[in-house]
Specification:
With 461 residues, the protein is α/β, with parallel strands linked by helices. The protein contains 14 helices and 16 strands. A ten-stranded mixed β-sheet has the order 14-13-12-11-7-10-9-8-15-16. The chain has a six-stranded parallel β-sheet with strand order 3-2-1-4-5-6, with helices on both faces. Residues 40-177 form the Gfo/Idh/MocA-like oxidoreductase N-terminal domain.
């Protein structure tokens, strides 16, 4: 509750871009959700992550799976035996197990627009590839649905502001699935840090480290997509290109048109850091990196180091290292440095260690080391399921109470913006000056051109 109060009291910057009239009119649900009623959910995108979310929502007694939507027929019909054999062989752990037992058979849709027209659905969970998030979220808001949207919220920075504006013109609840917001260890650590436990904060650091050496996602040629996979619909608002196996399924994360590792992993870590440091947006961004090692089809950098500088004098550094392994810190996934202490954290817990006196100084330590261990992690849950469950439970509660979720749309947009700013700085090789109110660069028109893109017809927001 303390964290929710903090988010509610935070100033929300509303300047931005005007949302165009959408092709959908406003449709309201015929089902009025009360405190003791089930929330009738539609799930748009039920592949790898979508199936994980589907399973976690199904664990909640007040969630009814009312509809499923996917462009791949075996996923839609929940039949793993019909999945492409090549997909099963190469991406075994990324292909959902399926076979769920639904108390009531959900409606099945191959087009999300028809699902959104269904007045019996109260809310939707969106777990499509990133480049679809903005369009479907805005369409869902205009259709009168509450929304749980998986991270990263957007594929471009401009989309995020349009989503915020669409929600502001509605009464819909929109939550963003940035896991650490629902995690007990991070919730407790935020309270410690905001209470001044480590003194004046100077630097926050985190990294994504994953060894793809030597072949990465491979080198492949265009080919015909599987007959039961709607490739044109998968591309959606992005420019048409022939199907390529190392784009979909799953490997779109290494293609800049559809996602990035800054968005995929960076959003988690950067959200946690800016939340802990109580910052909204950086003033300056600079970056170094490139596709230095991996000779594969991916068009994102395999090595990157980005610095975010804030008007308050704080700095965040974030690194991508996809050709090596190991960790950066003595504990956890991120580091926060203050004048009185240093904090290390991940979803499994945190450690806060006192600083020691340095040159010309003479004083005793400020406090004894503080530690917290997440019981869910100690019981062997090595995934982020407990964090996501926290967000899901909060979302369903907010659908009924109409309260603000733990990770509302504005917060999700601001955190996702960090990933976009990082990618733009890497692309331009410039030290960029960012105007967070108007969401434009003050010193680079080249960078401003990368804030959005022209959607492929007929898609438009």
């Amino acid at each position: 509750m303390e964290r929710r109060d903090f988010l509610k009291s935070a100033a929300v910057l509303t300047a931005g871009f005007t949302t165009n009239t959408h092709i959908f009119g406003t449709v309201t649900s015929s089902h009025k959700t009360g405190a003791n009623d089930k929330v009738r959910m539609g799930f748009i995108g039920v592949g790898n992550r979508g199936s994980e979310l589907l399973g976690l929502f199904m664990q909640q007694p007040d969630c009814e799976v009312a509809a499923l939507c996917d462009i791949y027929e075996p996923y839609l019909h929940r039949d793993r035996s019909k999945v492409n054999e090549r997909w099963l062989k190469d991406l075994t752990d990324k292909i959902p197990k399926m076979g769920e037992k639904f108390p009531k058979q959900p409606k099945l849709y191959s087009d999300f627009r028809k699902l959104l027209d269904d007045k019996d659905i109260d809310a939707v969970c969106i777990a499509t590839p990133d480049h679809w998030h903005a369009y479907i979220t805005i369409a869902a808001i205009k259709a009168g649905k509450d929304v749980y949207c998986e991270k990263p919220l957007t594929s471009t920075l401009r989309e995020g502001r349009k989503m915020v504006e669409a929600q502001a013109a509605s009464k819909q609840v929109v939550a963003v699935g940035i896991n650490r917001r629902g995690n007990i260890a991070y919730q407790k650590l935020v309270a410690e840090i905001h209470a001044g436990r480590i003194g004046q904060i100077t630097v926050g650091r985190a990294a994504h480290i994953s060894n793809l050496f030597p072949n990465g996602i491979g080198k492949m040629q265009p080919e015909e997509p599987p007959k039961d996979f709607n490739w044109d619909m998968w591309l959606g608002p992005r420019a048409y290109r022939p199907y390529q196996y190392n784009i979909a399924p799953y490997k779109f994360r290494w293609w800049g048109d559809y996602s990035s590792q800054m968005g995929n992993w960076g959003v988690h870590h950067l959200d946690a850091l800016r939340w802990l440091m109580n910052e909204t947006a950086p003033t300056y961004i600079s970056a170094h990196g490139g596709k230095y090692v991996l000779n594969h089809d991916a068009d994102i950098d395999d090595t990157a180091f980005v610095t975010f500088e804030f008007a308050s004098g704080k700095i965040i550094t974030y690194s991508i290292m996809e050709t090596t392994s190991g960790g950066m810190f003595p504990y956890g996934e991120l580091e926060l440095r203050g004048t009185d202490g240093i904090a290390y954290a991940y979803e499994g817990g945190y450690r806060i260690r006192p600083t020691s006196p340095g040159q010309f100084q003479n004083w005793n330590k400020h406090f004894d080391e503080i530690s917290f261990d997440n019981k869910m992690k100690l019981l062997g849950d090595a995934s982020s399921a407990d964090s996501t469950t926290g967000l899901i439970r909060d979302f369903l509660d907010c659908v009924k109470s109409r309260q603000t979720p733990l990770c509302p749309l504005e917060e999700g947009h601001r955190s996702t913006s960090f990933a976009h700013l990082a990618n733009i700085a890497l692309a331009t090789k410039e030290r960029l000056h960012w105007d967070a109110v108007n969401e434009r660069f003050l010193n680079s028109e080249k960078a401003n051109e990368m804030l959005g893109y022209e959607y492929r017809r007929p898609w438009t927001i």
